[in-house]
Amino acid sequence: MQKISKEELLSLARLSRLELDEGEVNSLMHQIEAVLSYAQRVQEIAQKGIRPSVSTKNSNVMREDVVIPTDSSPILEQAPESEQHYFVVPVILENN
After folding, report:
1. Are the CB atoms for 2 and 9 separated by under 8 Å?
2. CA distance 55 to 78
3. 44: containing domain
4. Number of structural domains in the chain
């Protein structure tokens, strides 16, 4: 398992502008060591050339866009406020 020193952790905390108490330092050290150990294991597997059991090939699935007419009345009836077949919502941006 890879180790991270307390000094390295405190240096990272300073760079990140985080204030850590002693309990948080110990807890974070264990958590970071677990992450580093996992990353090391992944790197070892990658170096051995072991292929994953799941296909990693990415492919786009294309389909035709189909318009399906839908009656919006049942949904609009549940809205607190609606106007001319649209939902009325509070203004969050104002024109300047």
Report:
1. no
2. 44
3. 6-48
4. 1
